Amino acid sequence: MVLRIGVIGTGAIGQDHIHRITHSLTGGEIVAVTDVNSEQAHAVVERESLQAKVYDNGHDLIQADEVDATIVTSWGPTHEEFVLASIAAGKPVFCEKPLATTAEGCKRIVEAEMEYGKQLVQVGFMRRYDKGYRTLKQAVDNNKVGEPLMLHCAHRAPSVTNFSGDMAITDSFVHEIDVLRWLIQDDYVSTQVIQPRRTNLAEEGLQDPIIILLETKKGIRIDTEIFVNCQYGYDIQCQVVGETGIANLPEPPSLQMRSQAKLSTDILVNWKERFIEAYDVELQEWINSTVNGEVHGPSAWDGYVVAVTTDASIEAKQTGKIVPIEMPEQPAFYQDAKAEYTV
Ligand code: NAP
Question: Which DSSP string do the residues of 162-224 spell out, in sequence order?
Fold first, then answer.
């Protein structure tokens, strides 16, 4: 069976997902698209040679008979309404992060999905599909370093434009929140934000770098440096310190050179390049599980946890205090989510 997909939002990542589903992946076909910029939606249909109808708005697209499932890649503040509409229509939906821009909004989605009675929502946290993170998780799950005690992480980008306020948390740290909780299978209980000496190379108004300290229910301590003007490259680090050893996130493959009295390997500079394979695997697994009527990836509950942790971290940054993260118990409805992957 081919999954007939409607895409809401044909901007940067919407176009990427349309391209990969049409040219690289199997089992999915883009049959409908929409964007507030309808000229852009038409241009994408033409460029990708899609047999797809361009809808005036996301709600008509969701209702369309030929659409089996939706992908929401529009502007963040519109995600909640389109995810809720997909649930109301009983259609599976893949929503790019954020699931909603507020924790309350995420909670409304969780409640709507539970009331519908079946999981339909997957959130676009692609790091869980990265080969390196999966290798690291396999080592942790197989007790290769004993029980995790501490995680030392870093999220560095060469530079950013139009990053202000709390975007280091809302746009960068959100990925760490999701992937680290998945990696160690534990929940967060508190967050604290440290603001070191500020780089002169950040845009006016942006505190860069920051260090975020999370504590989990089991007492695991996680420190994450977010440094989005580090200049030298796009560099994601994760080290798990366990009772019997240390496991590091593998570096992306790179040619090792011995030349001019130097031993060197390249460092990537672009986030898209770093996670390009992860996006492919993520969407392929979403298509496969959706065809089977299942959700295997990050759930609406996971999106809600990220939103609550994000809000608490913003409060921690603003107040300088350790802020508790208060989450209700994960409902049984979300507990048997399957992990389907091979390394
Ligand atoms: P973008 O290039 O601005 O694309 C968003 C598109 O949605 C734009 O074409 C926008 O039109 C359109 N849009 C806005 N409101 C709409 C509506 N009501 N109905 C239909 N289309 C609407 O942004 P992007 O970089 O693709 O990001 C899209 C989402 O993906 C964001 O939430 C972002 O956080 C997320 N994202 C996730 C990752 C990841 O690593 N997982 C990476 C990149 C982006 P206008 O431009 O005319 O407003």
Answer: S--TTHIIIIIIHHHHHHHHHHHT--EEEEEEE--SPPTTS-TT---SEEEEEEETT--EEEE
